[in-house]
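hey so i finally got around to running the thing on that chain from the lab meeting. sorry it took forever, my laptop kept dying and i had to restart like 3 times. anyway pasting the input first so we r on the same page abt which one it is
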Amino acid sequence: MKFRYEAKDGGGEAVRGEIEANGEHEAAARLRERGLTPIDIAPARPSRSGAGTSPSFFMRGGVPLAEKALFFRELAAMTGAGISASSALRVLSGQKRSRRFDGVIARIYAEVSSGSTIAGAFAGHPSCFDAVTVALIRAGEESGTLDASLARLAAFLEARAELRKKLVSALTYPALVVLVAAASLCVLTAVVVPQFERAFRGLGVALPPLTRAVFAAGSWMEAYWYIPLIVLAAALLAARLSLRAPGLRAAADGALLKMPVFGDMLLKASLARSFGTMAALLRSGLPVLQSLRLAASAAGNEKIRKAIETAREDAASGKSLSASLGARGIFPPMIVQMAAVGEETGRTGEMLEKIAGWYESELTEKVKRLGSILEPVMVVIVGGLVGLIAVAVFMPIVSAINSFI
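ok and heres what got predicted. didnt touch it at all, straight out
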């Protein structure tokens, strides 16, 4: 099996590369034989050629997080009851889940039955199980506490699923309200307003400036209704492309964090995800540097990912975790202080877990407040626009009636 490593040579220079070994301990031993001091060792990611499209932010490999959490909860219960991992996988592979997930579990069972390690079997399916999942399984397998590690993994995935649900709820509702309101106003402007405009033109009624402006907008929408759709499609395509280009992705994610209201929610969600991941890894016995690397990959925001990666490089050079995080400027002081307390007391994982929980509770409260505030605001905005159109339409009618009195 191939492992990616980061080490230091005799002169203190960083060295990176890959090495063949049967496990991380053997890889570390081979590196020491070469005169290198291991800093971080992780399985090399298999090639994804032919594996299809990359996983999205909300789902990896088409398998929902909740379904994976349930699977690991069942696997933890069975291994905790004394059933071997191979037998437990055989039983669970016969459960009626999604076709894709059933196939993955069946292949993992076949690999474990053929002598593969449990972590190695899961690592062979990166489109379904990420590096964090594999690291937690490997930690439990090597320490002889697989059932506890699987239970911790299930709880971790359940927390991530709940966090994503809150974030999706926070972003979907306002987007849906804005979309429906915009569509309704476009239909009203492009279909209804031109009918009144033609009726008033036939009557020869003098039109106030507001009415002329609304009728001009209606005529434009009736003639060029497809232009807003093209602009919307182009904006969505540009956003999609910016998320795929590394340079643009960092700029786009940085801009998202500066958005009013939503930027703070995205920041809290990313911090909760990153430090919740790191806490789970540290409490499973993984070293700080490897935990930081995996926490960075779980950030979901390129700016925060780069900040954690830079903090990891500082920690690798000998700085404390709290000093490395504090030097970045993006992490709130509470995170730095809690990390410092954790380092002094030897309870870093517990402190980071408290940070993640606090940000999750903050996000929950923000979602509730956003829902209660957004609805009346949108009603006022949409009502105001509809009222403006109604006033523009009825002003000439009232003027015509007054001219006959």
